[in-house]
Amino acid sequence: CYLHALSLLTSLAVQIRYTIFIRESMIGDGKSL
């Protein structure tokens, strides 16, 4: 049970980090332009 919750949490954290990275990169491109 703990392992399943941990895997779900890690996958969620990776998704959030990935989306934040994409958003920051997009914002940076907009600022540079």
UniProtKB/TrEMBL annotation:
<protein>
    <submittedName>
        <fullName>Uncharacterized protein</fullName>
    </submittedName>
</protein>
